[in-house]
């Protein structure tokens, strides 16, 4: 790990700061007319997900964090944990369910996800931007309904509940956007 100062900050850089791991989302060098220059930054805590605005002064030093991301395939659930296999090395790891709550809404067996770690600690499991899921429960479809109608709730095979157009039926395969917590995109 390298020690860097405020002038070395870049968007996307991951640093150790205040006993946690932070990713630089934004930064701006500010040189006031009077006094020393400083850097105003927006940092995301990779453990908690919190976003903070932090100002760095010329003497501030911090270490870069060596973050590793790997494509892994979800294999199966084992109690309260989920087993993933590295698609290159075939190593398997078990991740507690409470670490990947957001991803569980979209996770299907054999799905490839991106797992981010720091010194063996799981920081994030990133699912694809869109996933194909099957409707397991919803009210019967309305003949002649359009996608612009009011919509109705539908439960997907992973347990995710989303609002879908009125013409969707049980066993329909849907494309779901994962960016915003899950929303209907189209039929598959």
Automatic annotation (TrEMBL):
This is Elongation factor P. Residues 131-187 form the Elongation factor P C-terminal domain. The keyword Transcription does not apply. SUPFAM superfamilies: Nucleic acid-binding proteins, Translation proteins SH3-like domain. InterPro entries: Elong-fact-P_C, NA-bd_OB-fold, Rib_uL2_dom2, Transl_elong_fac_P/YeiP, Transl_elong_KOW-like, Transl_elong_P/YeiP_cen, Transl_elong_P/YeiP_CS, Transl_elongation_fac_P. It comes from Weissella minor. Keywords: Cytoplasm, Elongation factor, Protein biosynthesis. SMART domains: EFP (SM01185), Elong-fact-P_C (SM00841).
């Amino acid at each position: 790990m390298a020690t860097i100062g405020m002038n070395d900050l870049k968007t996307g850089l991951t640093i150790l700061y205040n006993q946690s791991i932070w990713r630089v989302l934004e930064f701006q060098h500010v040189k006031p007319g009077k006094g020393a220059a400083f850097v105003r930054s927006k940092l995301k805590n990779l453990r908690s997900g919190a976003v903070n605005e932090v100002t760095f002064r010329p003497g501030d030093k911090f270490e870069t964090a060596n973050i590793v991301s790997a494509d892994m395939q979800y294999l199966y659930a084992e109690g309260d944990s989920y087993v993933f296999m590295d698609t290159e090395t075939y190593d398997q790891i078990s991740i507690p369910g409470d670490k990947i709550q957001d991803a569980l809404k979209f996770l299907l067996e054999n799905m490839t996800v991106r797992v981010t770690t720091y010194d063996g600690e799981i920081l994030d499991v990133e699912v694809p931007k869109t996933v194909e899921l099957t409707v397991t429960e919803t009210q019967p479809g309305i003949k002649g309904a359009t996608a612009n109608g009011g919509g109705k709730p539908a439960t997907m095979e992973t347990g995710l509940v989303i609002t879908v157009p009125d013409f969707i039926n049980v066993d329909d395969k849907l494309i779901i956007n994962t960016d915003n917590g899950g929303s209907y995109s189209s039929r598959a």
